[in-house]
Amino acid sequence: MAASLPPKEANLFKLIVKSYETKQYKKGIKAADAILKKFPDHGETLSMKGLTLNCMDRKSEAYELVRQGLKNDLKSHVCWHVFGLLYRSDREYREAIKCYRNALRIDPDNIEILRDLSLLQAQMRDLSGFVETRQQLLTLKPNHRLNWIGFSVAHHLNSNASKAVEILEAYEGTLENDYPPDNERGEHGEMILYKISLLEECGFLDKALEELRQSESKIVDKLAFKEQEVSLVVKLGHLEEAESLYRILLSMNPDDYSYYEGLQKCVGLYLEDGKYSADQIDQLVSLYEALGQQYKWSSAVKRIPLDFLQGDKFREAAENYIRPLLTKGVPSLFSDLSSLYNHPGKADILEQLILELEHSIRTSSQYPGSTEKEPPSSLLWTLFFLAQHYDRLGQYAISLSKIDEAIEHTPTVIDLYSVKSRILKHAGDLNAAAAFADEARHMDLADRYVNSECVKRMLQADQVALAEKVAVLFSKDGDQHNNLHDMQCMWYELASGESFFRQGNLGRALKKFLAVEKHYADIIEDQFDFHSYCLRKMTLRTYVEMLKFQDQLHSHAYFHKAAAGAIKSYIKLHDFPSKSTTEEDEHMSNLLPSQKKKLRQKQRKAEAKAKKEAEEKNEELNSSTVSKSGKRNVKPVDPDPHGEKLLQVEDPLSEAVKYLKLLQKNSPDSLETHLLSFELYTRKQKILLAFQAVKQLLRLDADHPDSHRCLIKFFHQFGSMGTPVTEREKLIWSVLEAERPTISQLHEKSLFDANNAFLDNHKDSLMHIAAFTEILYILDSNRKSEAVKLIEESANNIVPRNEAIRPIGKWKLKDCIAVHKLLGTVLVDQDAALRWKVRCAEYFPYSTYFEGNHSSASPNSAFNQLRNNSENVSPNHAVDNQNVGSATSNGKAFENLTI
After folding, report:
1. C-alpha to C-alpha distances, 718 to 147, 529, 571, 642, 735, nearest whole angstrom
2. Residue 437 and residue 441: Cα distance in Å, rounded?
3. Residues 6+ apart with CB under 8 A from 692
4. Which terminus in the chain has less CB density within 10 A, N or C?
5. Which of 294, 326, 320, 327 lies closest to 305, judged by CA?
């Protein structure tokens, strides 16, 4: 132990600890070496030297020294504590907790170890252990405010809010002066607000309101005070008082939508679905007219009525709202109004209104009924709005004509090119969309958002190399791709991963998807420092919210996309293993079991040796760039930049299951989660787990095409299994036989009948027809021609709209692409796929996938290929022009194609 050292060495040991705490690592190493020169087996010095080396990125040496130190002095709490710190630095929290507990067996009252243990327990959500440790800290040091607060928060997190309140009240009883000093007023006020929130959570509303009002003078955050007060008053049912409080909040911030919603609830004029009666609408109009007089400069008070007004009143309010914003030139106007497109009929009213404004400005440079001349920019922003309007409705030709006119009017406005890029993306011309996004980027090279939008368009067009060059323009060093990873630029990594997946580069796709997964692990790790910081700074309400957010972190959309992308990549890797992996498997299959074992051991040793050499190489590279503190700043080179090692997994499906379990836990209401589950467990021959996925799909959306597809596929495969032989097979068979009658889609029906019933219920949906035809082909491959004919005879019905400039078909571009792939890869009818391509080229003339007339792809190449095939094949397989024409919409495919 340090106490056993002579005075000189004992002082040197203290210097090691101080140097570690002040990050003067070189100084600490020097002091440790001086002790070890005389006492080479001193365990605590060896451990502290190892801990210091760990901070200098010399991990292998660090672990070796710490283990050696612990071996030399097993009864030293310092050695165990240091070992725990070492594990903690590598995020091995469970191992660190074991080390801390061993240290506490030796020194049970060590406050530093208890504090570190409590932080790890909070991180790992060991809440009962967290409560126990915080109680021990409070017992040892009851005069420390942080220990009282920590004990209270621990009980709150452990679902015991009433006990947390008691602890805070006990702490308040220990204060000599109830009124805090000026330098602690903010922290004390936060503690009071936290206590009020706890009382509210416990249901002690009257007591909470009383204490809140008594403590008003002590609370610095007056806005939080008012919001807490109105929350309590509403829950107590004092709506008149709450109304006056909401009006006070509106005077503080008249653009907060939640205050208006709260005010509506207080006066009994709020419905979740927004379906108000005529009387309620009149009352709401009166309310917002009064509020509009009071808050004339508020945007919210003018915008909110557009959600509940109907007919002529909506048109009048919309015109009053839109006119000044068009004159002012607000690019976000359409985004502001986009939610109105979900209300039946309002899109048509907006279209008529904007067209009238456009016509009036063109003819008289004035708005209808106005005598003031409008600036030329008013026409520009009107065209800008109309372009986005028609884009939203799927009328891409009109949308592009409007945006082109706007660009011709004022070719220097960047937003015009960005919107044109977005329209072309929606229309299906991804290459042209990337080109216009790049043009917008060149107009302002200092705008990071425009740069990012350009990168995203390039990645959507699979222009990865070019996108990388553009993306790094805003990274730290200009050419370091790792900086994008360090910046946790997840949208970029997701878009890159999806692009690599589309191109079949599974290694790089996995590299990007797993990088996003690592970011989420880093975010979870980042909360560690806040466990002590938030208690010290008394940001208790925010701290608890942060912990709740962290518990739901993996339900975030970005993580879902990354995990789903990784699962799809592993499934594809399983279905189409890389050549090297296949050759290795063939070689392994020819070996004896003993030879296989030796070869695997040899491979593991080679991998470990290569890893160690890579670490040593990185240390050599970094040795020339060591800071004064001894910390190496240069990051190690990525040993696998293209993800080649990720493709060498022995069992891709087992890797995929790791991410599937996270999705099942955090995204249980997503169809994609259970679709991936079905695909995975079907391949792994986990029959009951695959059936469980089918049941979840039916629970979420029984009418979805994918749900139907999985249901019939499962029972078709189950029916072809044959008679069960083993006890396990018999058990599975009995479970499925018992479950089948409970599924309404299959009750007393054959699979063919269930498939026909599905089609009868969804005759007008292209994707439902596609699902039906796929299942028909799976059930009976001899009916392929019938399945193909059904797809080709499906009609693209018109979406009903009032006074639409051009009819819009119901079919979506992505659905038509999916059907084309179905025809080409599942039904394997290349002629039908070509006919479908020609037909869809008419519906989507800007689509590069279908090579439409107006796309950036070669014009009519699909048609030319079809014509050449029909001329070159033998007479028995020839396709005459009349039949090809009839396969297109109304036989008019050729009329609009230029040969």
Report:
1. 60, 52, 21, 40, 12
2. 6
3. 677
4. C
5. 320
Question: Where does the pLDDT of residue 641 fall: very low under 50, low under 70, confident under 90, or very high at 90 and above?
Answer: confident
pLDDT at 853: 86
Does position 3 have pLDDT exceeding 60, yes or no?
A: no
Residue 888: which pLDDT band, with cuts at 50, 70 and 90?
Answer: very low
Query: Which strand (E) or helix (H) includes residue 33?
Result: helix 25-38
Residue 464 predicted with pLDDT over 70: yes
Give pLDDT tens digits for 388-442. Answer: 999 999 999 999 999 999 999 999 999 999 999 999 999 999 999 999 999 999 9
3-state secondary structure of 873: coil
What's the rounded Cα separation, in Å, for the pair 164 and 138?
Answer: 14
Q: What angle do CA 357, 359, 364 make, to 5 degrees?
A: 95
- Across the chain, mean pLDDT equals 86
Q: What dihedral angle (degrees, nearest 10) is formed by the CA atoms of 117, 122, 126, 129?
A: 50
Instruction: Specify the pLDDT at position 640.
Output: 77
Q: How far apart are CA 274 and CA 292, in angstroms?
A: 21
Tokens of 346: 């309002």
Mean pLDDT of 602-608: 64
Q: What is the enclosing helix (H) or strand (E) of 150?
A: helix 145-157
Report the phi/psi class of residue 402: left, alpha or beta, with left for phi > 0 and alpha for psi in -120 to 50.
alpha
Q: Which two tokens stand for residue 292?
A: 């509009």
State the number of CA atoms in the 13 A half-sphere of 496 facing the CB: 28
CA end-to-end distance (rounded Å), the chain: 92
Distances in Å between the alpha carbon of 671 and those of 628, 674, 741? 54, 6, 23
Burial class (CB in 10 A: 0-12, 13-18, 19+), 599: middle
Q: Tell which residue, 488, 548, 482, has the closest CA to residue 522.
A: 488
List, in order, residues 6 or more apart from 801 with CB less than 8 Å away. 348, 393, 808
Q: How far is CA 697 from CA 670, 672, 742, 743, in A?
A: 9, 9, 15, 12
Compare 1 and 131 and report the one with higher pLDDT: 131
Q: Is 75 exposed, middle or buried (0-12, 13-18, 19+ CB in 10 A)?
A: exposed
Q: Output the six-digit token pair for 894.
A: 């050729």
204 burial via Cβ count (<10 Å: 0-12, 13-18, 19+): middle
